[in-house]
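ok here's Acetolactate synthase large subunit:
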Amino acid sequence: MNGADSLVETFLAGGVNVCFANPGTSEMHFVAALDRNPEMRCVLGLFEGGVTGAADAYHRMTGRPAATLLHLAPGFGNGYASVHNARKARSAMINVVGEHASHHLRYDAPLRGDIESVARGVSHWWRVSADARAVATDGAEAIRAARAGNGRIATLILPADTAWEAAEAAAPMLPPVRLHRPRPDQVRAAAEALREAGAALFVNGPVLHGAFARKAGAIARRTGCRLVTDLFVPRIERGAGAVAIECLRYPVLENVAILRDVRHMVLLGAGEPVAFFAYPDRPSTPTPAGCRILDLCDPEMDIGWTLDALAEETGAAGAEPETLPLDLPPPPAGPLTPTAVGQAMAALMPEGAILCAEAITAGQPIADATRCARRHDWLANPGGAIGAALPLAVGAAVACPGRKVIAPTGDGSAMYTLQSLWTMARERLDVTVVVLANRGYRILRGELASLGVAEVGRNAARMLDVDDPELDWVALAAGHGVPGRRVEDAEGFLDAFREAMATPGPRLIEARLVEARLTGAA
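and the structure:
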């Protein structure tokens, strides 16, 4: 047994049985070890950002960490943006990064880089294995670190010689890290605050789906407080029967209006709401100046215990949460707008669908239209580094093979990680990608206006538009092995989306929005 064998066996013993990978020469012994253990599912991505993004979604949907396999400092650097998003989503992830053999490092070979510095900026835990005998123990500690605090990023740097030299057997699993809990007086204070007029329970993370969401909804029903969350959340359950949770918006002034009557805000599994960016003469946080904020349970604490304690303190046992109704819109007709896309999706997407959403400017109309569709999960991008939708769709489909995955995304965003289409085809994943083609980074035109720039000249337009030449998404999809279809009106989108929902396997729909055809720019 070598070090790589001991690491793979340690991962399997610890319940880590999926590896999203883009390996290179320094990882070949690890590849061979994976080959000797077919119970580990290996999924190849053609770009490291797709690899790490898929691992992010895998944890969001299963609650278990996946491993990634990356090649040296440049490989980790290529995956950095999606690891950043995973960190903001509080996903558990174990990155195995190959390094040159220890004796080779002093020669400063072309691919040598400072992996530790790259990893340090985005990992909660990182380590360089000292020798082959340490690899298994390091792997066990990486699993423990990734599962700590409700989900963290662990990065294990594996010099090639530690993978190929002789090693001991797999390491035993370590006990989980104990989660901290609020004090009883803090729970009582939170319960009292929630009974006051103008109270809001602000939640995030696992409180947005499943049993935790129902418990939070029961607390809100019993106390009369509002139940609120952020816009860009890791995962939220929506649709008929899901707990009714208010979501904030992107513009900070809209959130100021939404929260203007809040006088007491209890944070549970969430940080204080904050604007995505700073603007002249606009606040960084949308909460009213006089609002009292009680940080009851931060995202790394024992959220389940805290919910139970707060439910008991408020007498919420037996209370039924407010839930969303089934309210399907009529089939759209006419011009192809984001609202029409959302209406078609709401009318046709099946029960249990998973939406990996990164439509940016088109996202809010789609979110509004689908809120009361059939029950589904919505995965957003808490980290804001664009290019998330396609890798998230890969990870969600691997995690939940029996569910239809839908990825509405902007055309500019999708270009960051379009290689994920190939992985969808290779793995026969049941994913429908909807590219909202407005031919540019339209969000940035809005940001220019928010910063007081009234005119968009030639240079700015050249940096914001992607219409010369136009991206041909049907051709791009075909080149990656995914059938594609372009539509230009609501009826065409309705027909294409109906076909995609009825057909297993990957599909891509290029929805050319009407405003792009009218203006010639995004």
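+1. The longest helix spans residues 72-89.
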